[in-house]
Amino acid sequence: MTRTHYHTCPLCEATCGLCITVENGQAVSVKGDKDDVFSKGYLCPKGASLGTLHHDPDRLRRPLVKKNGKFVEVSWDEAFSTVEKGIMPLIKKFGRDAVGVYLGNPCSHTLAGTLAVRPLLKAMGSRNIFSASTVDQMPRHVASGLMFGHPTIIAVPDVDRTRFMLILGADPVTSNGSLATAPNWPRRLRDLKKRGGRLVVVDPRTSATVRLADTHLAIRPGGDVFLLMAMVNVLFAENRVKPGRLADFTNGIETVRELCRPFTPAAVAAHTGLDPAQITALTRDLAAAESAVVYGRMGTSTVPFGALTNWLVDVINILTGNLDRPGGAMFPCPAHLPRKKKPGGRGWTLGRWQSRVNGMNEVMGELPVAALADEMETDGDGRIRALLTIASNPVIALPNARRVDRALAGLDFMVAIDFYVTASTRHADVILPPTGPLSTAHYDVAFYNLSVRNIAHYSPPVLEMPKEEPEAEMDKWEIMYKLALIFSGQGAGADIKSLDDFIIQMMVAGAAKKETSPFHGQEAQMLDLLSPFKGPDRMLDFMIRTGAHGDGFGLNPDHFDPDGLNLEKLKNLPHGLDLGPLTEMLPGHLKTASGRIELAPELMVKDVDRLAKTMDTAPAGLVLVGRRHLRTNNSWMPNIPALVSGPPRCVLHINPADAQNQGLRDGDPATIETRVGSVTAPVKVTDRIRPGVVSLPHGWGHDLEGVAMQVARKHGGINSNILSDESVFDPVSCTTVLNGIPVSVKPARGLG
Description:
Number of helices: 25
Strand content: 15-25%
Structural class: alpha/beta
Radius of gyration: 25 Å
Distance between the termini: 56 Å
């Protein structure tokens, strides 16, 4: 029997719609859904491989427990019992902080990873929570939290309506976009130019996005903060500051005027590598545009001044009046969240606690990954003796990768929720594999918060999950709830239904507890209407019903549209629902204590002093930056043949002048070395990278002993994080520096 299903791709932030053909329980074809309201048929190679990923013979179907040093398939009951026996004695003896957790980037791409993980973390009760955020986007959260009152209030580029777009440290054509959810970036950027707009890209490499640009500024890595500071300087010096209506609810404009005075285009030239006249012209053009937006990503985050750089992105959008206006930087209004109409709140802070060994600040309830190895290796109260990893591969993803590898090997106990035996999970005592991506429901909780258009799309499972032993599988949320029951002391035999019911009861009670709530006294009716669903689906139904476009359970016509959304309605819209372009959200959206935009937060003001002290410091010599490929997403899918085929990608890009200086020719092996490690890679001499900069891709290095992924091991690759240094980080956001790493590059003697 042949059936057609529609599903949202969960493999990157673009949220493309898929048309999946299933024959006899096998996904035989995955194509772009031409009727999808957002992607309109666009699909990249990753999405097309989703069926291959689901049916990959190396993907784990049953739990593994390590016995006598080797993994053995066991029943789910035995696996959870082993977890309980391994974890709970450690908690009893050493306390809850003896167990840490590392959440990988894929957690943001699943319902379970965004909703079910919260009860699990609460049940764990540990302060040793880590995630990929501090090797990724944490500076963006910090800047937004300090300016707007909450770290998830993030402005995204209104790319479909802007007339001028300045992109820094991002290659959305290759990455499919990040912290700016939008399918088909190539078409969107071409449309920008077709309507008479202009695209300027700041990047030390000639990336795929650069090749679409009107102007390319090949900046020195790490120079973005100086460029943006100089642009702010020009805006004030030439009286081009025009915040418009934002001035009515913005604090700190005059403070920023004083902060930027030393950073003239001429003063920053050595650090940017740009002609001062280019900076001045760029600023004038942006300020004069009918609408404009500044957008930055990884290259603005994983640098020594990541938080400051991300702050400056918003500062320029505000000073030019391009925040919260069509064609500028705007705030989404997703279906699963209520629309805030009155400004004000508790504000946001960081550093509520610190890491035990080196005193690094907590941010958003987690500690920075730069502290993880220290916390695992250093004796004393609170040492991490057991670790839970969820959809993560820290041996590949984290700085000083070889040290991370050793630290995992030295743990007393390790549990992993993962599809595969990877470079990291090979150290686990228990691996709990969730069901495949086509056997679970999907809704992009995280990424509709960042969408360049308000979209809602719920995807039921495409394939039925096996439920009978010995082939039985579990959804990720069921695994997390079972672990939560273990951590809370209820034991491996406890029924997850009790926890599932308790969670939704608490959500409903929280919404109805105040007498002024539109749901006060209606808890029983709400629970009854939610009863058709379970797990994250039930949580999502509650969120959508009480969200900005929800039906309010049909109980509150004065506050909600009775014909509004609920999960059942969304389930019956297989191609998704277009809720329209982004609209003005300020000042109501603000959660600062003042109810105003805080343009000059104290932490940023202090960090400008740190930046100023580097003005007279000569930029580093040869530095390393990362790069992406359309067929990869971090370290996720190295076992899919179609995604790793073709010419080798783990090559060192180097400018011809630097290659000549180092005595290297195209194809030669070169040794790249930093304080913490060295790797050897073949050289690709190319003028698509500026002098003084070399580049390696990230997400590789899967050929370690014990990795049970045949394709990934064959293609192996080079783990660039062997070179990154956990002791070098942005002190405001505690995000590791992964771009602009000083390196030495020389011929690999005896290997040529």
